[in-house]
Every structure is written in C-alpha cells, then in structure tokens.
Amino acid sequence: VDAVVWHGPLPSTYVFIYCKQMTDQSRVCLSVAPRPVNFSRTFYGIMFDAGSTGTRIHIYKFIQKDPVELPVLDSEMYNAVKPGLSAYADMPEVGGETIRQLLKVAKKTIPKEQWIQTPVVLKATAGLRLLPQEKAKALLNEVKEIFDDSPFFVPENSVTIMNGTNEGVLAWVTVNFLTGHLYTKTRKTVGILDLGGGSTQITFLPRLKKTVLTAPADYIAKINMFNSTFKLYTHSYLGNGLIAARLATLGALGADEDWSFGGLTYKVSGIPDGFAGYKLCYQEIMQVVKGIVHQPFEVKGSSIFYAFSYYYDRAVDTPNYCSFLFLKQVCNKMTKYRPISPFLCMDMTYITCLLKEGFGFKDSTVLKLTKKVNNVETSWALGAIFDHFHNLNIH
Ligand SMILES: Nc1ccn([C@@H]2O[C@H](COP(=O)(O)OP(=O)(O)O)[C@@H](O)[C@H]2O)c(=O)n1
C-alpha cells in the first residue's frame, strides 16, 4: 500500500482505498499499487563462503510472484573448492584463481541478462580471521579485483571478513527459515551448532530470562526480521573449530611431524609407545575446552538443536556413530582404526567434550545432524544473502 498525492484525475490502474480532499484542491489517497497481470520476477544472489578449510559458492534463485509479496527461495546451486583462501596467504593471485573458477559456475547458472543486477558477495570466516592482517587484506583485495572484473553487480563492502556474531546469527536465520520456523507467530525456533575448521558457533533463542542475564554481554545479539525482534544467545569461539582444536591438543604434546593448516606448517607429534585410550584422550582434550567455553543456563532444556558442518561430516565418517560405546572402542583400539582414519578418536572425543563439558548438553540429548534442508545447504550463507537484500540489522 502506498500513500500518494494526486493533482490530476485519478488513474484507473490504481485501486484506491481512501482519499481525502485537501484545502489546496489536491487529494491525498491511499492506494494499492497497480498489479500487472502475470507479474513474476526472477532474481539471483551469489554468496561466497571463504572458510578455513575451503571456499564455497552459493547461487540462490528467488522468484517474486507478486509485487506486494516477499520473494520466495526457488533453488540453490552449490559448489566448493579446497583448500580455503587462507592456504594461499603467501600467493594471493593463486588463491584468486579458485574464486575465478567458482565464478564460472555462476556464469553457467545465471542467465546472461541477469548478470549485471546479480550481487556477488564474499564473506570470510575463521581462516582469514586467524591470518596476520596484511596477508588477509592482500587476499581480500585480490578477490575484490576479480569481482570488479566479473560481469556481476559488486555492492559496497562486498568482500569482507565476517564477525563471529553475524556468522552464528545468520546460520540461525538459515536453519529456522528452511525449517519453516520463521513464518509462524509462535516464536518456536530451533538452535544451531556449527563446527568449522577454525571456529565453532552456538546460537539459540533463549526462553528463560536467566539465560540472557547470566550470559556475557557480547553473547546476546538482536536481529530484526518479519517485523519482530529476536534476542539471541550466540557466540563464535575462534580457535575452537575442529582443526584448530586438533592443533591445540597436539601442541600440548610436543612436536615432530609437519602438518599444514590455514597457510602454516606446524610440527606435531605423538608418543609412539605412550598410553592411549579414550579416558586419557578425553583428559588431554579437556584442556582445549575447560574454562574457554561458556555454558549457557538453558541448554540442558528440551530445545531442538541442528548440528552441521564438521558435526555432520565426522559423524558420517564414524561407523555406528550413534553409539557412544563405539567411540570408546575407536579410541581404545587405535591399531585397528588409526590406519582408516587417523584423527577419528581425537575428533569424536573433542566433539563429545565440547558438547558435554563445554556447552553442557546431556548424554541423552539428541541433535539433528544435517547437511541440507529441502536441498539447500545448512550454512550461514543463505542468512547472509537475506541480510544483503533486507538488512536484518544485527546488533
Ligand atoms: N556449505 C558448507 C560449508 C562448510 N561445510 C563443512 O564445514 C566444515 C568446515 O567449515 P569451514 O571451513 O567453513 O571452517 P570455519 O572457517 O567456519 O572455521 C567442513 O566440514 C565443511 O565440509 C559444509 O559441509 N557445507
């Protein structure tokens, strides 16, 4: 509905709801905008996720059937390359090539006449946050140049490092949108757990005031969406992603062997004939979690949590992963399982430790392990494209 001022005859294409004659002979009218028959608009948005372990492109197609209604997400085209941009810290041009390669997918997916109005945006996460500033900047500049050379629309600030709060909040938006929780007025939503290589995020809508009151001030974020404000509990732990946690754990043991992550090579080692087993591994890993991860007041409750990224990937790699007993077997029979998956015991122990000792989930908690919902990736990227089109005002 628009408010318009008319100085002449009223056009017949408008449907007027209310008009008021003003003293200067003009009329102020409330009208419904003209609705052309067969109105349907298709548009696209490109979101790059520059993660610590890989770079991904999400190409979203939206269809707006009616000018007064919100567009709907029609489909997503997804592609990924490895390693992530941070692995090219000393050769940004080579890193840029991976972006060029992914842009080719966008050109194939989006009709040519739409290119000029399709926004292209890249947001980097833990990998670039952990790099020295000048190296991260050189990589971002390289990407910006490639975007400028592309036929797509490059909005202002289209190539940035995203902060941890936005990463957590936007993943919450994605999952709640895809599971249909944002349309209803019930304010019933689901929480999210995202385990990346460099950082890990937890986000949920607290039901109890105490959860908000007992949380550190910067763990509470507000977001405006569909005319309501959500006050979320959210935090991103930098250095507590799965691969960064491996590094922290191994660092405690001393170092021999070369191991690369995020553009750096580390010396790592184990004690060949030392003690192994689940209990000792758990104790060692506890040092990476205890005193670092804040336990939200409410998490022990009955809320539903969707867990994705490495939570999903590692679970899939673990035979009989539903069984906690099996984890003990993997760790206690290292000679059997190490050759198949050398980090399996360490990773699953870290995940268990993070969920239980860190966030305070109960042994009996059932998480919804997800990769896609309705054929769309569970990732912050969809939330980020919504934020681009609608400005969700996260603060
Ligand atoms: N769209 C995506 C993005 C990441 N991932 C997974 O997320 C994990 C690592 O996330 P990441 O490289 O973005 O790490 P951070 O930069 O967030 O710490 C890997 O297991 C990826 O395969 C995914 O499954 N789908």
From TrEMBL:
Catalytic residues in the record: E167 (proton acceptor)
Protein name as it appears in the record: nucleoside diphosphate phosphatase
EC annotation from Swiss-Prot or TrEMBL: 3.6.1.6
Superkingdom of origin: Eukaryota
Chloroplast is among the record's keywords: no
Alphabetized PANTHER family for the sequence: ADENOSINE/GUANOSINE DIPHOSPHATASE, NUCLEOSIDE DIPHOSPHATE PHOSPHATASE ENTPD5
Binding site residues for ATP: G197, G198, S199, T200, Q201
Species the sequence originates in: Cyprinus carpio
Keyword terms, alphabetized: ATP-binding, Calcium, Disulfide bond, Endoplasmic reticulum, Glycoprotein, Hydrolase, Magnesium, Nucleotide-binding, Secreted, Signal
Pathway membership, UniProt: Protein modification; protein glycosylation
